[in-house]
Please model this.
Amino acid sequence: DNLIKISTHSKELLQKMTEIVWALNIKNDTLDQLLSYIRLKTVQALDETGILYKMVMPEIVPPIMINGVNRRHLMLLVKEAVNNIIKHAGADFVDIHFSLTTGRLEIRIHDNGKGVVDMQAALQHGNGLHNMQQHAKMLGGRLSIEQNGGICVKFSVALSKISNESVISNEQTDD
Model:
């Protein structure tokens, strides 16, 4: 029993350290790299549980630079939504949709689980939903969590708020 706990905690710690190293690596500073990493981690998590999923990703991703802090907030927001589904929803299917439209990144994660009995209490007292709200706030985006045949998490943020293009263009004009 203790060996299982130690093994589980060690695995979680290693995963968190890997995520931090990934977020700090400047080679991963593009939106394309971020979306690829989120897709990989989400697929791994859902495959381990046997939950079926449909994932739609944008075909064309503009070459936008995103700093490590914003990448980490985006990754953790999606990870938290997926973990909530795995741990609490009782779902057997998740529809995950990433889109880039009119200068915005939009993410929709919709499960077919049991939903939440008291959404207001869950938003105020549930760590997962609270953490998602904090990540959305730090990114300057909009987050909505709705009951709709399960839970539907929608996140939208202007690419200009999460990119560091302005920093790059300012550096280039100073030369």
